[in-house]
Amino acid sequence: MEIEIDGKKIEAKDGSTLKEIFSNNNIYYQKGTTIGIVKKETEKSSYLDEFLVTTNKGSFVIKLKDTEEGKLFKKISKQFENKIVRWRTSTLIAIGSVPTNLTPSKEEKTYNPWDVFFILAGFDSNTTYIALSKKTQKGSYGTKNTIGKITQGRHVLPEIEEGDTILSIEPVEVFTVEKDFETTTDLLYKPKNAERIFTHILIKLNENTPMATEHIFSLTKEGFISIDEVTESFVSSKGLLGFDVQTENSNLRKKNSVSVRTEGKDTGVVYIYKKERITTPNHSVSGTITLGSELIEMLKKGDKVAVKTSPQSLSLLGLAQKEAEARLASEGIKQERSGDVSDEAVIVEQEPPFTAEILKTKTVKTLGVDINNIIEVELYEDKAPNTVKYFRKITGLINKPIGKLDIQFAHPSVSLVAFEGGSIEAGGLIPENSPSEVSNKGDVGVTNMSRQHKGLIGVRLKEDKAYGPTGEEFDGTNIVGRIDLDKVKIDFNTEKSIYIKEIKK
User: Fold this and answer.
1) Phi-psi bin for 330: left (phi > 0), alpha (psi -120 to 50), beta?
2) Is pLDDT of 504 > 90?
3) pLDDT tens for residues 108-129?
4) Domains defined for the chain, CATH in brackets
5) Which residues contact 265 (CB under 8 A, 6 or more apart)?
């Protein structure tokens, strides 16, 4: 029989299992991830009563109403392409004009924000304009009913000025694929002839979105992402919810595009689109699915999907200097070592920090330290989940194998060392896992929101029955983890910063 796996035709014996086929053809499978199997598919397309209007300032969508004016707009919308904004007031924007056969009406109407309607200048249908309502208003504009309403892209209207141009007006086309498919994680499944099988998705990342690219590298560092939300138009993963990313590329979110939310309550969430969505300043479009888009259509909430990226990450943190040299050489990139330059030294910082920038400059500086000077920390995620998330964010452990803490002060007399935190990020740190009778040697603590110095991070050098690792009383302290100080080789009194890595118990 002949089947297709990830776009490649493969001959296999009837009755073979996926496990046998993968093994015989050297196909890697990420254990536990969803495999999509398409048995039969038929693609159809249809048009909604929605039109995408593209201007030189951005795009918006008009949802048409079942009115005479709405039906007319559908017929003559192309005539408004290349027309300009003739006038703009505090209440509306007028585009045009074109001749129509509308019967003029002098009836006064109330228009709401985002309504779209025709204006007959001088009550003459030969000068028909499209009007975009920005505020609630009353007027007699020559027509009886509205065309429809702007449903997406409303943020574009304040940017539009007189003289701006309508570049295109296109009906929103929806492609639907009727598929006979199933998903599985069972490698004992036996494919049938002509079935199409998908084991992973491939994301081609944009070189002009270095921060969002690193965000996706962090989300996919284990080779897969978890699907936390599924709608008709997208699937999303909330693995880095709350992680800040700057907007770098607010382009149209096309089908198969990948974006990172940069503002709002879902900041840090990664979206993969099954349908086109309009441009928004709250998303940075950072890549495109070039393989496995069919698998995206099959995913359910809770699924794990294997992910590959192009290019692959060039984050070198946690590697030995020698390991990094070999990795960079394969990409034709020059390494400049600093700090501890020995082959065995562990890389804790790199410049540039972003893969996209390294690929452009073809050079990267790597800062190494002795492995014995990297401090291991165990975090209590089950006891203090919010504080652990804060700690990982401040140190960089949320998306890096090596974190960093800058020493604020060390007080041998009170037996603690304190590190800089983030008071803004700590604003929601409610008390959790506070000490009761004693703060133990090696405890790592964070001052919670009940105290002025919220967010301060500290390590207790000796046990204390009154104060936590940051010098606060117990009710102002959250214990986030511990360090085995007997293994620490550095002197906190002489260092400006420390490097840490998380260990699991």
Assistant:
1) alpha
2) no
3) 999 999 999 999 999 999 999 9
4) 48-171 (2.40.100.20), 199-312 (2.40.100.10), 321-369 (no CATH), 374-503 (2.40.100.10)
5) none
What share of residues in the chain are helix, strand, coil (percent, to 5)?
15, 40, 45
Across 58-163, the runs of DSSP E, i.e. the strands, are: 58-64, 85-88, 92-98, 109-111, 115-120, 128-133, 137-139, 148-152
How many angstroms separate the CA atoms of 128 and 108, rounded?
A: 17
Q: Is the pLDDT reported for residue 220 higher than 80?
A: yes
pLDDT band for position 176 (cuts 50, 70, 90): low
Q: Tell me if residue 430 falls in helix, strand or coil.
A: coil
- Count the residues in the chain: 505
Q: Is the dihedral of CA 205, 210, 216, 221 positive or negative?
A: positive
Q: For residue 430, which amino acid is it?
A: I
State the pLDDT confidence band at 342, using cuts at 50, 70 and 90: very high
For residues 73 and 81, give the distance between their C-alpha atoms in angstroms, rounded to a whole number.
12
Which of 217, 302, 223, 215 lies closest to 262, judged by CA?
215
Q: In this structure, which amino acid lies at residue 342?
A: S
Q: Please provide residue 185's backbone torsions phi and psi, each rounded to the nearest 5 degrees.
A: -120, 10
* In the predicted structure, residue 43 carries a pLDDT above the cut 80: no
The pLDDT, as a whole number, for residue 177 is 59
Mean pLDDT of 368-383: 96
DSSP state at residue 253: B
Please, which residues have CB within 8 angstroms of residue 193's CB and are 6 or more apart in sequence? 1, 2, 3, 14
Amino acid at 351: E
pLDDT value at residue 388: 96
State the Cα–Cα distance between residues 21 and 191, nearest whole angstrom. Answer: 9
Give dist(CA 203, CA 303) in Å, integer. 18
HSE-CB of 58 using CA atoms within 13 angstroms: 20
pTM of the predicted structure, to 2 decimals: 0.70
Q: Which of 153, 44, 38, 56 is nearest to 95 (CA)?
A: 56
The span from the CA of 439 to the CA of 471, in Å, is: 10
pLDDT band at residue 277 under the 50/70/90 scheme: confident
Within 10 angstroms of residue 137's Cβ, the number of other Cβ atoms is 18
CA-to-CA distance for 303 and 200, rounded, in angstroms? 12
Which amino acid does the sequence have at 192? K
Name the E strands within 185-249.
196-198, 200-205, 224-226, 229-230, 234-237
Q: How many Cβ atoms from other residues are within 10 Å of residue 281's Cβ?
A: 12
Average pLDDT over residues 201-226: 95
Kindly report the CA angle at 341 between 336 and 343, in degrees rounded to 5? 105
Q: Give the whole-angstrom CA distance, residue 114 versus residue 162.
A: 18
